[in-house]
Amino acid sequence: MTRKFEGADQESLDLLKKMKDRGIESSYDRYDAQQPQCGYGKIGLCCRHCQMGPCNVDPFGRGPQRGVCGADANTIAARHFVRYVAAGTAAHSDHGRSVAQLLIAVARGEAKGYRITDTKKLFEVAKVFDVSTKDRKIEEIAEEVGEMALAEFGKAYGTQRFTTRAPINRQKVWEKLDITPRAIDREVTESMHRTGMGTDQDYKNLIMHACRTSLADGWGGAMIATELQDILFGTPKPTRGTANLGVIKEDEINILVHGHEPQMSEMVAVAASDPELLKEARATGAKGISIAGVCCTAAEMLMRHGIPLAGHMKMQEMAIATGAIEVMAVDIQCVMQGNEELSRHYHTKIVTTSSKAKIAGAEHIEINDENAYEKGKEIVRMAIKNYPNRDKSKVYIPKGKKSDVVVGFTHETIKYMLGGKFRASYRPLNDNIMNGRIRGVAGVVGCTSSISWPDQLPYMDLVSALIANNILVVQTGCAAAECAREGMMVPEFMDKAGDGLREVCEAVGMPPVLHAGSCVDNSRILISCSEMAREGGLGNDISDLPVAGVCLDWMHEKALAIGQYFVSSGVFTIFGTKSPVAGAPEVDKFLCEGLENIVGGKWAFEPDVNKVVKLVIDHIEKKRDALGINVKKERKLYDMADRRALDAENLKTAQAGCEPGIAHSHQKKD
Ligand code: SF4
Ligand code: MSK
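^ thats the input. predicted complex w/ Broken Fe4S4 cluster below
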């Protein structure tokens, strides 16, 4: 494939050009080398779940229509989809499990360097878990909360406790369908069991289990990760920072932290400010030690500490190719194995830190709850020692954009910003949606991938169009990082919003594009949606809200699990690729149409960004119509009878403490 090295994101393109000129392979070269990729696999028609296979089904009807065991296209595609969801759920949830274990260790005084930061959040979670807080020490409460969280993974009976945070009507939908998630490990295990040879062979039954498994992610493992991380490291608040490759410092020792769990990155950041290590750093001639983040670790560090964001998933190679990285410390998920080979062309050391995620050829410094601070120091010292090996002739740090960002818009922040410290509530947001200043809310989340060349900025195009149409955008993960780099996450960007949205942003002083965290933090969006439904005026279930979810450039299984838990929670969710089950039109139709009548949410798969914009707007307007909040007020000359009727209505609504016209919808539903 012929690639152009000029266009949008010139910084990344310049670095890719340098790699190419030096004969260094990138993920884009590997992507090209993989073409044409397996057509069966792309559309969900390849099964290799047993040794009689791999089996393919010919989508054109010219070849086999069943696998050796007799599995048809629907079964094969649905099983393929369920395994995606199960793998994504496992990834988020295993992350959540580590955080629960760390919380217990901290509470027991066994984790040096960590502490409990947000006791308010601890009390909130304790309430959901029925943990008594009366006359108890913080450590006692934290230990029991940690134990309860850990029990969510393997308990023999009962369902996920965080599901009780959903609106009552949503909980009833799940109960009726018997998809309220049970133990997280059970749902993942059952997914693997059902999708093996000779077990579940009814695509609808399989997809309903994908719903339940995904809910064990969003309202289980992922939510545990987010909430317990907030307890340990602090619930993010609006914080300023900078984003893009230009945050890498030419005259300092650069350490990149990459992956997902803040356990490692927090300790490396703490160690980097150790006076003794700073002294050692300066002795090498460097001006200091600089930490920057890549991928979702970047989001965690940026929103809690303002530590700069170097780039999103597909920029990890470009960051190394600046030639100015002494150490890239990684933990879990979204770390390319190609980094190790790439690092050998520079002086960069790749350091793995998790026992679950080693890379052949990379250095391994294992971080656990007990040794994290000491190991963090070891990593920093390794970077200091490596600094003299930097080859200045290979250093190229793009001097282009280095964007300011304001991040940290959790559901708590949104509530406080809109409602004020003493009356924190979603009421103003709901009111502004009802009066039409804000048409609705879109969650634009998820990955970036090496499928799209850097000159494509799909999230930027989408988000720009949505805010221009007065749709408030909430972002997480690498999608958020793309928009952060493009300077869209500052209050000044409100100038690009439609009049209504701009008016609200001006009044509150917030950007029209809100950064809500990493990919595991999509659970924050579920809570925001629940609060909006609970606040009243926008229906009484998440599926009634004028909201939509979008992920354009998805690559990880986690993204599909997130999409499925949004759908299962009642949200219309659009992915910017062809359907991963396109080879089985009945399964595709069930996901994209049938599910709406069952769970209230549905999928769409649409690679054209302009069409995605239209899908979001049309859906939001459809929901507004259904809520009756799109009624255009006609000018009316009131006669006396009309006035008397209006007075009577106003009196009635004043007695109910409500505004005219929205009396019923203002009442809290549960
Ligand atoms: Fe083929 Fe059936 Fe085995 Fe899949 S489970 S590989 S379709 S025989
Ligand atoms: S890192 S899962 S590319 S968002 Fe969370 Fe980014 Fe997607 Fe990985």
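The pocket of iron/sulfur cluster (ligand 1) is lined by residues 47-50, 52-55, 67-69, 71, 76, 197 (CB under 6 Å).
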